[in-house]
Amino acid sequence: MRLTRFTDLALRAVMRLAVAEGDAPASTTREVAEVMNVPAAHMAKVVARLQHLGVVEARRGRGGGLALTGLGRRASLGWLVRELEGEGEVVVCEGDAPCPLRGACRLRRALREAQEAFHATLDPLTVGDLVASPTGPVLVGLVGRGPVAD
Ligand code: SF4
Fold it and tell me: Which SUPFAM superfamilies does its entry note (predicted)?
């Protein structure tokens, strides 16, 4: 199973935001994009989706910027990945050229179960678990090298 790039970028963003608080400068979409070495336009779409899910909020005023919400800190990683990936299956059985086995395929069922097992493995984890050492200290020390081209 392979995550979409969109989901991967979203997980990178929430990990960065999880360590970018306290006395650290406020995070912006541009800053997160540069630190994570991705185009700002891509990260803007990711941040918008995370805001829609209630995982990230944009705080206004002095000291404002992007921040994880309480939900973002507590949420199950399995839930977040399911929301970001959608309901799609790992194999395309329908579509323009549907597979003739699709109505009675044991492989399809096995792949669905494998997909659910993949998500279930992520269920007990939170963003906080992802930024424990050694990842957290590395995230804190990351510095952007300027805008990344689309
Ligand atoms: S063989 Fe089964 S899993 Fe593969 S495309 Fe056909 S129905 Fe889907």
Answer: Winged helix' DNA-binding domain
Q: Amino acid identity of 70? A: G
Atom nearest to 106 CA in ligand 1: 2
Tell me whether residue 104 is in a domain: no
pTM of the model: 0.89
- Alpha carbon of 87 to ligand 1 centroid (Å): 17
Nearest to 122 by CA among 27, 7, 6: 7
**pLDDT tens digits for the chain (150 residues)?**
889 999 999 999 999 999 986 555 568 999 999 999 999 999 999 999 999 999 999 888 776 789 999 999 999 999 999 999 998 889 999 989 999 999 999 999 999 999 999 999 999 999 999 999 999 999 888 888 888 888
| Tally of structural domains, the chain | 1
CA of 122 to the centre of ligand 1 (A): 26
Cα R_g (the chain), whole angstroms: 18
Domain contains 50: yes
Q: How far is CA 117 from the centre of its chain?
A: 19
